[in-house]
Amino acid sequence: MRQAGTREGAVLLLGSSLTIVGSVMVAPVLPKMMAAFMPSEPHAGLWVPLAITGPALAIALFAPVAGWLADRVGRKPMLVAATLLYAILGALPAQLDALMGVVAARLAFGVAEAMVMTGCSTLIADYWHGEQRLRYVNRQVVTIGLVGALFFVAGGVLGESSWRTPFYLYLLPLLLVPFMLRILWEPPLAQQQARDQARGTDRVDRVALVAGCALIAVGMVLCFVVTIQTPVILVGLGVTSSTLIGLCTGWALLASLLGALLWPLARRGLGLHGCNGLLLLLLAGGLWILAEAPGYASVLLAVTVHGIGAGMLVPNAMAPVMNALTPQTRGRGMGLFTGCLYIGQFVSPLVVGLAVSLGGDLRRGILLLVALAVLYAVGWSGVALRGRAGLATSRQDQPPL
């Protein structure tokens, strides 16, 4: 069977990074978009933010359909078509004058993003197995973080002249299409399926699939508490400088990269289940420090602890989901996983709002989420300990050679 190498890996890692570019590159121009549309559109305060966050909702809803398409029409054809749509729909708002047209284009853009993310993740699972697959899952997270940081800065710089300018950067993925056509190949699914049947591993592990999807959804709810609420908390502490708030955001991104780099060590030392317990405790610890922070330095510490846990979340949740799927169901399974990831992002503000209503204020609401995260971490730690105990017992029962 054909073996994938570094060329395929480079194309898929760059393709995966398109998903973070879709959300971070135009975020810095939100105020300029608001100012441009406010005079002519009375509801601009509602629709302009949706133009920025709307793709996440589209991804959450369409990713399972994208997974079905990947299994039905093939991974490579869907990915190539999605990348072309990504570039065209991404740049389209720069040419539109109607706000509702911009919102519609961004929602359609989110559909293309869903296909890109699902296609890249599915091909990574198809091309590599075992430790190699885990390495590429980790590299995917690191690449997404690095490219996201680069384009966040690029979007801010280009947005100084006009809110339209950053959208033209979405045409850059067109340069990736020829490499996708030349380097990527459709995996022999029937051959993989026959091999799995011979090994007795041709059935979907539904427990691992559901557990991974639940973990990524809950984890994203906890991750976006920091993303959305940190500026609010900083303003409440008297920190109103956009530079300091932006520095805190950038620092959180660097911390998540550190977490992704530390993930292989944590996984080897604690196992996947034990690492789930660790990353949830880190997320909870960061949120607890954030809720109790007396000043800017404490907030930086909070986003550091939280970011390390966030960096471990996606690879540690994705790896067992990939392993739980058969070649014939990988597209649908990864589409479901991607959908759960973005559903967690989208509902995070709603969950925080519910927690605030129960707790009485933002600080108590965050502490309520901390308590739930700790309980979830304890559950995963218990699973890890039972697994280790079972492994030790089985080794003791083996007769000596």
Automatic annotation (TrEMBL):
What SUPFAM superfamilies does this protein's entry cite?
MFS general substrate transporter
Report the subcellular localization.
Endomembrane system
Q: Which residues form the Major facilitator superfamily (MFS) profile domain?
A: 8-389
Task: Give the transmembrane ranges.
Answer: 12-30, 50-70, 77-96, 108-129, 141-161, 167-185, 206-228, 234-263, 270-290, 296-314, 335-359, 365-385
What Pfam family does this protein match (any one)?
MFS_1
- Do the record's keywords include Glycoprotein? no
Gene3D superfamilies, per the entry: MFS general substrate transporter like domains
Record membrane topology: Multi-pass membrane protein
Q: Which UniProt keywords apply?
A: Membrane, Transmembrane, Transmembrane helix, Transport
Q: Which InterPro entries match?
A: MFS, MFS_dom, MFS_trans_sf, Sugar_transporter_CS
Q: Which PANTHER family match?
A: MAJOR FACILITATOR SUPERFAMILY (PTHR23501), VACUOLAR BASIC AMINO ACID TRANSPORTER 4 (PTHR23501:SF191)
Protein name as it appears in the record: MFS-type drug efflux transporter P55
Organism of derivation: Salinicola endophyticus
Q: What is the lineage of its organism?
A: Bacteria, Pseudomonadati, Pseudomonadota, Gammaproteobacteria, Oceanospirillales
